[in-house]
Every structure is written in C-alpha cells, then in structure tokens.
Design goal:
There is one protein chain. By secondary structure, the chain is mostly helical. The protein has one domain. The chain has 4 helices and no strands. α1 runs antiparallel to α2 and α1 runs parallel beside α3.
C-alpha cells in the first residue's frame, strides 16, 4: 500500500484547523470557569466560617448565600464536564479526519456527527455558564437604601 499523496494530507490538515480553533476556544472557556470556580470555593469557605459564627437574620443571609454558592459550584462543575466532553469529541473529529485520509476510508458521517456533538456540548456548557452568571446577578444586588437614589446631587 503506497502512502497517500502529500497534497491530500495538507488539505486534511487545513480541514482540521476549524475543529482545532474550537478546541482553543474550549480551553479558554475552561480557564475562565476554573478561575470562577476558585473564587466561588474561596467564598464558600468564608461563608462556612460565618455560618458557625452568626445567628438570627444574619445567619439566614449566610444560608441563602451558601445556597447560591452551592448552585454556582454545581453549574460550573457541569459546564467543565461538558467542555471536557466537547474537547474529546473535537479530538475524535480530528482523529477521524486523519484516519479517513490515511486509511482511505470514508468517515464523513462520523466526522460530521462528532463535530455536531462537540458543538452541542459546547453550547450546553455555555448555557450553564449563563445560568451561573444569572445566579450571581440575582444574589449580588445591592440594597436600594445604599444607592441613595433619592439624592439628585450625584
């Protein structure tokens, strides 16, 4: 069996660049999520300490924030899992492209399906990120009295 002509491999490499760019984007999003997760975990540790030290209404506020933090940790964890799965699907897509080229097999349906699954997983992960940011938005609203909205001089 003779090796495939070089121009065909060059075309396959060019074709594989799009999925690789998606893989880079996935890595960047994972970096953002791990940073957010680190901050949320730090906040949860602080809140756990406050949980033991507070009572009454102050304790209730801590419990509410702990619930928000717990939901955020779960969403970020699921988003990271989905991104890893998406990255693996991208890797399999690139692998199938090259196997098809080198082996002379036709993997169009496999490549298309893998790429579709990778993008679908990426989109679901982004929805999880959106939901996590919505929790932050809801839980970090400033009390109206601190804003002094009645003051017209500012």
């Amino acid at each position: 069996m003779s090796p495939p002509p070089t121009p065909m491999i060059a075309q396959t490499i060019q074709l594989a660049l799009a999925p690789v760019f998606v893989l880079v984007a996935i890595g960047n999003i994972m970096n953002i999520l791990t940073t957010r997760l680190g901050r949320v975990v730090d906040r949860s540790r602080h809140l756990q300490k406050l949980y033991r030290e507070t009572t009454g209404a102050e304790h209730d506020v801590v419990v509410i924030e702990l619930r928000h933090v717990d939901a955020r940790i779960a969403l970020i964890g699921r988003a990271l899992l989905l991104l890893v799965m998406s990255g693996l699907a991208i890797g399999l897509t690139v692998g199938a492209l090259f196997l098809g080229e080198v082996g002379g097999a036709e993997f169009r349906l496999t490549v298309g399906t893998l790429f579709f699954v990778a993008i679908l997983l990426l989109m679901v992960a982004l929805v999880h990120l959106l939901l996590e940011t919505r929790i932050v938005h809801r839980s970090l609203r400033l009390p109206r009295d601190l804003l002094e909205l009645e003051r017209r001089d500012l």
